[in-house]
Amino acid sequence: MFTACELGVFDLLLESEEPLSSAAIVQRVGSSADGMERLLSACVGMKLLEAELKNDEAFYRNTELSSLYLTKSSPKSLHHMMIYYSQTLYLCWHFLTDAVREGKNQFKRAFGVSSKNIFEDLYRSEEEMIKFMHLMNSVWTLCSRDVIKLFDLSPFTTVCDLGGCSGALAKECISIYPESMVTIYDLPKVVQTAKKHFISTDEHRISFQEGDFFEDSIPEADLYILARILHDWTEKKCLQLLEKVYKACKPGGAVLLVEVLLNEDKSGPLSSQLYSLNMLVQTEGRERTPAEYCKLLTAVGFKEIQVRTTGKIYDVILGRK
Ligand SMILES: C[S@@+](CC[C@H](N)C(=O)[O-])C[C@H]1O[C@@H](n2cnc3c(N)ncnc32)[C@H](O)[C@@H]1O
């Protein structure tokens, strides 16, 4: 699937008016004939392509699934996610055994980098940072509305999206809540790239603040969104960040955590268990149970904590000040 995405097979078949033979795909993609034939056949096995035989020759077309999720131009495209998984994550997963033995991420083995800050490793080049931002943006094409609508956030007019990255949730927030004003807070180079590639600076209800949320001050707000932030960090760092959020939060305000949740007994869901291993190979963090997040929130003072599930990959926890 990753290779077919990287080679643009699904894009080519989407653009083509008719099903294409392996030879035609080889010619357009510039691959070996034998390699492509085997790849196409495996994609048929995975139900990503359909093959039709004409005079003993197979002609390929996308399935609905691959057209919807694996082509670049689809509004629900996960193409960027596939590219990141293929070129970056897959390499970290290759060292899962070492990660389990050592209990730490595998950037050193996979990419030869190992700084004190995981985001320096993740953003080891501008190209890698942009790829990461596209990865972050990708999944929200499927479920940003679910997470932002699950609680009524209309009472919170000033919102700070901490580690807001590409701004996908900020955009969803202002589209659902007409009164809301969102500040995207992120590392300076991420904010600059978000402005350049992801968000129109004409959008007057979205503003930006550059900073390091561990080192620098964060803006005062009614609501802090922390989407996929705490799962990057150890308990100690989560508490450090949440304490800062609690102090900056206006009275009556709240924090909204958006995370993959494990069952309380950690018996599942399988996707969350695998995501937790994914956090092991590339971060300092882990996926957690609702009770573990509640404990972190109550430890810094948040109360009336509510957990709501979307039925999709990300769920939501709201804690009030
Ligand atoms: C896993 S991403 C989540 C992005 C976004 N919230 C989302 O769900 O799409 C973590 C984000 O935190 C930002 N980040 C990491 N360390 C940070 C720091 N010390 N200060 C500010 N932002 C930071 C990263 O640049 C990145 O945008």
UniProtKB/TrEMBL annotation:
InterPro entries: COMT-like (IPR016461), COMT_C (IPR001077), COMT_dimerisation (IPR012967), SAM-dependent_MTases_sf (IPR029063), WH-like_DNA-bd_sf (IPR036388), WH_DNA-bd_sf (IPR036390). GO terms for biological process: melatonin biosynthetic process; methylation. Residues 93-303 form the O-methyltransferase C-terminal domain. GO terms for molecular function: acetylserotonin O-methyltransferase activity; protein dimerization activity. It holds the Pfam family Methyltransf_2. Pathway: Aromatic compound metabolism; melatonin biosynthesis; melatonin from serotonin: step 1/2. Its EC number is 2.1.1.4. Keywords: Melatonin biosynthesis, Methyltransferase, S-adenosyl-L-methionine, Transferase. It is an enzyme of class 2 (transferase). The active site is at 231 (proton acceptor). It comes from the Eukaryota. Homodimer. Catalyzes the transfer of a methyl group onto N-acetylserotonin, producing melatonin (N-acetyl-5-methoxytryptamine). This is Acetylserotonin O-methyltransferase.
